[in-house]
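User: Second chain of the day. Same drill as before.
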Amino acid sequence: MITVKRLYDTGREGTSIVDYLIESVADGPGQAHAHFDGTRYYTNAGTPPGRWLGAGLDGLGDDKRHLHAGRRVGADQLRALIQDGADPLTHQLLGRAFPAHVSNADRVRALTADLSAHLSADERAARIEQIERQVARTNKAKAVHGFDFTFAPPKSVSVVWALGDAGVREQVEAAHHDAIKHIVHMMEADSIRTRQGAGGVVQTETRGVVAAAFDHWDSREGDPHLHTHLVVANRVQGPDGAWRTLDSHGALMPAQVALSEAYDNHLMDALSSRLGVEWHVRSVSRTGREHWEIDGVDDRLLKVFSTRHAQIEAAREEASADGAGHWDADAKAWAGTRSDKKHHSLEELTHSWRERARQAVGDQPLRGVTGRPLPAPGTVPGQPGTRAHPVRAADITDDQVAHLAGGVLVALQSSRAHWSTWNIRAEAQRAARRIRFETPGQRDAFTGRLTKAVTDKCVRVDHAHTAHTPARYRRRDGSSQFIPENSEIFTTQVLLDAEDALVRWSKNTDAPRLANPQALASAGRRAPSADQLAAIEAVATSGRRLDLMVGPAGAGKTTALSALVEAWQAEHGAGSVTALAPSSAAAEVLGESLGAPADNTAMWLTLRRAQAERDSHMDFLRQAGAWLDHGGKVADIRDSLAVVDPTTAGLPDRKIRAAIDTALHRIENTPMQTARLEAGDLIIVDEASMAATIPLHEIVTQADAAGAKVLCVGDPDQLSAVEAGGAFGMLIDSRPESVPSLKTIHRFVDDWQGPASLALRAGDRRVVETYTARGAVQSGTQEKVLDQVHAAWATETAQGRTSLMVAADNATAAELAARARTDLKAASKVHGREVTLADGNHASAGDLIVTRKNARALRSGRHWAHNGATWHVQAVSADGAMLVTPTADPGAEAIHLPADYVAAQVELGYATTIHRAQGRTVDDCHVVVTPDMGRQALYVGMTRGKSANIAHIVTDGVQDDDDLMPQFAQEPAHILTDVLARDTAPDTARKAADRHADQVESVKRLANEYQTIAAGDAAWGWQNALPRLLPGQADRLLADDYSDALAKELRRAGRAGLDVNTVLPALAGAKPLNEGHPAADLAGRVAKARKAHTAAGGQRRLIAGLIPAAPPSADPDIQRALAEREKLITARAGAVLHQALAENQPWTKDLGTAPANARVRSQWLEAARTVAAYRDRYSIIDPPSGPVSATSHDTSLEATLGPVVSHIDPTVVEDRRRATQALLKARRLSEQAPRQAAPVPGRAPVVPTMSRTPRSTVGVPQQPRTSQRPSRDQNRGREL
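Assistant: Same format as last time:
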C-alpha cells in the first residue's frame, strides 16, 4: 500500500520531516552508496541512511558535481532540497523560492480593512461573509515543500521479513525495493508533470522525479513494520530546463490509488518468484475490497505484532491497581500507551520479535510459508502447499480479458457515477491480483490491455466547446497540453439512461394522487404544521410519477409522512403505502413510526426480483405445457426448461410433460415472501440522499409499470450512498420550480439550534462562532478528544439519558466503544465469559452490541438479526455464540447468534459512525470531528441530539501507524471552517460532465489559455515573422546585437494596439536603415510610431471589455487559436449574463434596469457583459443572501465584484479597474435612461451568445453552464 502526505515547513527548528528522517539514521561510518543492509546496521540503533532516486537527479549539480541514484543522502543535501527548494549540491534555488504562507484569517483581516467605513452594520457583516467565502475558495494552502510516499507491504510480509533468516530477509528487501523502483518509473512516465503558462494552464512533461528513499523497519510500538518513506521534492525540471512545482492536483494525487495497487501486485509477483510464497484473501471489507496476505502466516502472529490493544489492557489493570477509579484508569491507559517513535537496533528488535513469535506459535513460525513448489504437470492448480504458476500477458485470451473487463466495469459502476482513467487502472490492478506474472513488464502489458478493454466499454462525458490548440502546445501524441493527461471522465450508458429516466419520471404527471387532500390536515398521529401540510399536499396532488420532498434534520419528516400515509391509505386502501429505508434497522423504526409496511431497499428489490422470476417461471411452464399439448417437440423447449427446473435435464421426452406439471405445482404451493406493488400504491423512499442511482431507477421502473407513485424524501445535504449516487440532488436541481420542503425545525430543545443547524447545512461559516459561543465546540489532541467524548457519554448515560458517541471511521468508533465497555466492566455492569467481536473488541453478558449483516434465519417472532439492529447480550457460550434480546423489546424471546456470525458480523454498540447515525435521534450527541471531514458529515453528526450536540475537534493528525513526527495542532475554528467548505456530495455522471464543461468553457480558463498563447507568440513570434514581413532585411536585423531590443519594442507596440504587421514594412521602407545597427534604428522608428499611436488616442482592443487583445499573429496556427478563444470568451460572457438575468440572480440588481432605448441598451449590455466576465474569471461567490445593495459610499463595489484579491498583480488590478468602470457605467446608463417595463419572470434581455450543440455522447441538450448558476447552497442561504 502507498499512502501520500504533503510536507510543509513547520517553521520550527528541529521539527521538520528532514530532521526526523536524518535523526533516525543509525550512526556509523559514511559510505558512498546507501543500502538496506541488515548486517551493516544490525547492531546500531536507528535505520539505514537514505538513498537518492529518480531521473530528475540528472538536472542537479554542475560540471563537477553530480548526484546519482543510489548515493547516500546527506543531511545538508536533504535540507537544502526539501526545506529551501534548492539544489542539494550547489544550493542554488530551483525555480522560485517557497512563498511565505498567509493564513486565511490574515487575508480576511487585510481585505476587511479595505471596506468602506460608511457601510451599515448589516452591509459590513454581509461583505465580510463574502470575503471569507472568497478567501476560503481562492487562498492557497501552506507551501508544499514535498510529498512523503510511504510504501508499506502487507503485515504478513513484515512478519516473514522479521522472522526469516538472512537469506529470506534479503529477498524480501530486494522485492520491496524492486517494486518501489518500478513504481517510480511508472510515476515518471505517467504522473510526474508540471504546469506553466498563465494560471498554470499548460501541463508539460518533466525530466523526472527528485526523491530520497528512507527505509524503516518498525512501528511506534516496536512491531515489525517494513516500509519506505520516499520523500519527493516539489521541484521538477520541465522540457525548457526551468524548475517548477509538481502538478499535484492534476497528475500526482489522482494516480495515487492506482500506483498503490500496482505496488502491491508487483511486490506479490516478486515475492512469489523469489521466496516461493503463495497469497490468499485474508478478509473482505464491507465495501467488497479484498485484503491479501501471504498464505500460511498464522493469524496469531499478525495479532501478536499489533500490540497497542494489549498495552492498553495492561495499562488499565496497572492504573486500577494504583487505586484509580475505573474512568481514571481508562484515561490513563489510553493516554499512556501512545508512545513517541523510538529507535532500536535491528538486533534488539529481531530478538524481541522472534521471542514473541515463539511464545505465540512455537519454534517454527514460518514452517510451510516459503519455498512452495509450482503445481506438478497435469495437476489441478491451487493444490494445498503449492503456489500459482506465473504467466505472460499473451497467455491470457481475449475472452478472459473481456470477462475481467466486465467485472471491472461492474465494480466501477457500483461505487461511483463517473470515473477517470486512473480509477480504471486501479480497478484493473485489483482484478488482476489473483494472477502472478513472470516479469513486471508482463504485468504492465496486461494491465494496459485490460484498461483499454474497460475503457472501450465506457462512455466519455467530458465534452466541452474547446478551441484549436497550436502545434506548439501539443504533446507527441497530438493531444492538447491545455487538457491534463488521464483527465477523461467516463461512465456507462446504463447510468446515463438511469439518470435520464429518473428526470423524466420526475416530470411525468399521470401518477395516482389524492382526490381529497383536505383529509391531510386531520390525518396522522399529530396534526401537521403549516409547512408540513403544504409540502405533503403538494406531493399528494402533483400526480408526479417520481416526487420529491426535502426535509432538513429535525424538520418533522415523520410527522408529515404519517399524515400522508394515513390519508393515502384511507383513499387507496390498507397496505397501499410501502416505506423503504437504507437499512433494516432504519426500516423497522420507519415502519413503526408511519404505521405502514417497511423494508430496507435492497431486500424489497430482492423480493420483487424473486417474485418476477417466479411469475416468469410459472408463465413459461404453462406455455411449455400448452406447447407439448399441441404437438410441439420437447427438443424445442428442453434447454429453457432446464433453466427453470434443472431436474428435467436428463429426463426422457416421455416424462417431460409430467415433470412440467410437477414443477408448476411445486412453485405454486411453495410459500414465498412478497413485496406488494399495485396500481394506486405509494412507495416512500426515506433518506433518499443515500439511495444509489441504479436501485432507485429499478424501484421507479417497477412502480411505473404497476401504476404506482414513488416519493423520495430526504435531504441532499446529508450523507450520500456508498454506491453510485447523487440522484436525489440531481432531481432537485432538475426541478425549475421549488421542491416541496419542510422549513421549520422542531427537534431541538434550545431554540438557537434550529437556525444554527440550517446555517451549518448551508455551509455558512458564521455559524462556527455561534456553536463556539454556546459551548458546543471542544477540542484537543486525538487522545484528549476521545477522553472528552467518553466522559460526556458516561455522565449522560449515568443520568438515564440516551447519549451517542459518533466518529468518522470504524476504528475510532471501535476505540470509543472499547472505552465505554471498560467503564461498564469496572462497574460490574458487564460480566462473565467474553467473546471476540468483528471490531476486535470483546463482549459478555450485559453488553450492548449491534449486528451488521441481515440474517433473516436468525429470528424469534418478529425480531431478526439485521444490519444496524442493537441487542443486549444475555449470555455467551463456550464456543463464542450468543443469546441476545432486542433493545427495543427487552421482554422478547432471546435469539441465538452462532459463533461464526458473532465473530464476523457483530460489534459493540456504544459508539457508531456518522453514516450509521444518520436518521437516529437521541438526547445528546458527541461528534469526533477530524480535519478531513466534509460538511455533510458534520451536519448529520451535529443534528442527532435533541438537547445537546457537541463537536469535539481533533487538532492533531497523528495516526497509530504513522511513525513520522506529530503534526502541530491547528486552530479549532479553522478546522471547522475548512470542514464547512468541503462539499462531499457526489456528482451524477451528467453533473460531472456539466461541471467539467463549466470549468473548461469559463472565462478564467479561456483567458489563461489566450494569454499563454499570446505571450508565447510575443516571445517567439517576431523572430519567425521577420523573414515574411521584411524578406530582404531579416537576416541583418536578426544578426544585429540590438535584435532583442527590436523584439521587445515590437511586443510593446502590439500591446499598445498598433497593427505591427502593417506598420513595420512601411517603417522599414521609409528610408534606408542604419548599416551598423539596423535593428536599433528600426526599434527607434517603432517606438516613435507607438507613442504617436497612443497620443492620438489609440487603445488596445479589449475582449469582453476585460482581456487585452493580442496583436495579429504572423503564424496562421497561432492566429486561429487566438481568434477562436476570443469568440468563446465573448460568447461565455454573454451566456453568463443572459443566465444571470433570466434567473434574476441577486448581483444583477446592481446593474440597474436595462434601458428601453436600443442604442443605450446596447451600451448597457456591453458594460454588463464585462461585469459578468469578471465574475466568471475570478469565480465570485455571493453571500448567502446575495450581494448587498450598493450605497452612495460604496466605492469599492465588493457587493458585485467581490473582495479585492490583489493589490500587486497587474492583471488583477487592471481587471478590477475595468470591471469597476463597467459596473458604474451600467448603473449610470440605467439611471439616466427611461425605464422599460419589468421583464417577464424567466425572460431576460437578449444577449448575443454562441449556441450550444447537443453533445452526442451525453445525449441531451444542456442549459448554458456557468459558475453563476444558483446552487442549492444559495437557495438555502436565502431561506435563512
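DSSP finds 43 helices and 34 strands in the chain.

User: Great, on to the next one.
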